Amino acid sequence: MSKKVRVRFAPSPTGGLHLGGVRTALFNYLFARQNEGDFILRVEDTDQTRFVEGAEEYIIDCLNWCGITPDEGPHAGGGFGPYRQSERKALYRQYAEQLVKQGNAYYAFDTPEELEQKRAEITNFQYGHAHRSSLRNSLFLPVKEVQELLDKGTPHVIRIKMPVDETIGFTDMVRGRVNFETSQVDDKVLLKADGMPTYHLAVVVDDYLMQITHAFRGEEWLPSAPVHLLLWEYLGWKNEMPQWAHLPLILKPDGHGKLSKRDGDRLGFPVYAMNWTDPKSGDLTKGFRELGFLPEAFVNLLALLGWNNGTDQEIFTLDELVEQFSMERISKAGAQFDFEKAKWFNHEWIRQSTAISLTPNVISVLRQHDISAENHPQLTKIIDLVKDRCTLLTDFYEHASYFFQKPAESKIDWTSIQPKWNDAKTDFFIAFIQKTQETASWEAASIEAAFKALTQEKGIKIGEVMLPLRVMLVGGKFGPAVFDIAEVLGKEETVERIELALAILGR
RNA sequence: GGCCCGUUCGUCUAGGGGUUAGGACGUUAGAUUUUCAUUCUAGAAACAGGGGUUCGAUUCCCCUACGGGCUACCA
């Protein structure tokens, strides 16, 4: 009987939630659901200097928006709390001290300034076997002096003592066997002078205490894996160590390198899941959500960044992803982010969504432009008419607003009809208005029939008046079938718009 | 610099000892839509290089090149 699967997403609350972070969270979620396990949110706020107000709530909101809400976490509770590392501070010291007692770690009294000095003096300086003896630590200072320093409360850190010459390796779920030479790894700080653990200690202690079975993180963590491996061993928990998976990085669309918030600003696309306002500077960074992405599309595109199911299928619901996700099919190489493809995913999702499910989003987009759409009797019909041509939810403003308000005179594309305008056309439209008054029915097919009959009657080519009608009703050369538009607009509104246009063209 | 990871069309990727190397985004050209978008059809577009192993390598192995990550009392 194997243990219950438990995975964690462990972000640091230092700002907006990056696309890559959401993907890591997503893979955690998929794996947990697939294996009927638990998905835990752990807030890694051990660096007090980088703490940003509101970031934690923001992260939780992002996960909720994506539909990948954690089962346990600071917001949800659970039997393994607290879930903020800052609230677990008291817990870590004993493990660090245990390591010191065992001889696997030591006290170091060097100040940050002294170390900076060393780094300047010695090229490729590492706090490790090569330089330990010339530094101020409990490995080389006389026992008495160490005790005195400790008694005086001298600020110090606890560092791991890396073995001089060992090969340490593990089997990564995506990369297979990975080995490291301990001689190349420095003596990482485990406990900082302020009593807080570093990531290295905290991740091991908490993964152990929270009974994490599988640990997914970005590839940038691979080089510090040997430290974590050793810690699991030294703490005596080797058999409980989770299986590691180092996920491929998400790279810049141009050139290479990790995708960063800056790239989004520079290239004009979002990197954060939702809008993020920096509480200090007040700077707003746009998110996928506010730009008009459906959470389903966002999750879908993220899942395909580094994973596929081996077929040509590209559109997946969250449920399908849960069912089909597999660690074996995660690619090893980093993936450049392509915003064009991201938009394609959203377009597909909008097209495949029902008008009913899109309704709240469309109402909200229109409301941002002071258009109240919620009471429109034909709202779902309007959505069905235009959704195929909306790539982003925000496009519903451009493609649907004319159903709710007359196009502004200044916005109407007069240049496409005015040059070829003549009295015959004026006559035609006047006659058309009259004709509309004679019949009670008002459906696309009958309007079209009447319109066409009139062109014959008047001896005017249909193409000559179709485009003008469209521009009168819509304001430009776009939109669905013009008689469908007229039907939704209603007879009265259609006539008003034609009359209005006629008046302007007649000036 | 050192260590680690990686390398199939511009991008995301499938494939895997013998294939016309497949799909998608983007792109090009046509068709349709009496508008625009969609849609449809067609096209251009890739196995980093060199050595092995093999009857045969894009596929397996090695080297090189290139790219990336890490190298903090940050995560």
UniProtKB/TrEMBL annotation:
The EC number(s) attached to this protein equal 6.1.1.17
What the entry lists under Pfam families is as follows:
Anticodon_2, tRNA-synt_1c
Locate the Glutamyl/glutaminyl-tRNA synthetase class Ib catalytic domain: which residues? Answer: 4-344
Instruction: Enumerate the residues binding ATP.
Output: K261
| Short sequence motif named 'KMSKS' region, residue ranges | 258-262
Q: Which reactions are catalysed by this chain? A: tRNA(Glu) + L-glutamate + ATP = L-glutamyl-tRNA(Glu) + AMP + diphosphate
Q: Where in the cell is it found?
A: Cytoplasm
What keywords are annotated for this sequence in UniProt? Aminoacyl-tRNA synthetase, ATP-binding, Cytoplasm, Ligase, Nucleotide-binding, Protein biosynthesis
User: Which CDD domains does the entry mention?
Assistant: GluRS_core
**GO cellular component terms, semicolon-separated:** cytosol
Looking at the record, the residues that make up the Aminoacyl-tRNA synthetase class I anticodon-binding domain are 366-501
Which processes are annotated in GO (biological process)?
A: glutamyl-tRNA aminoacylation
Q: What class of enzyme is it?
A: ligase
Looking up SUPFAM superfamilies in the UniProt record yields: An anticodon-binding domain of class I aminoacyl-tRNA synthetases (SSF48163), Nucleotidylyl transferase (SSF52374)
Q: Does the keyword Metal-binding apply?
A: no
Q: Which family does it belong to?
A: Belongs to the class-I aminoacyl-tRNA synthetase family. Glutamate--tRNA ligase type 1 subfamily.
Assembly mode: Monomer.
User: What is the protein name stated in its UniProt record?
Assistant: Glutamate--tRNA ligase
User: Which species?
Assistant: Mucilaginibacter arboris
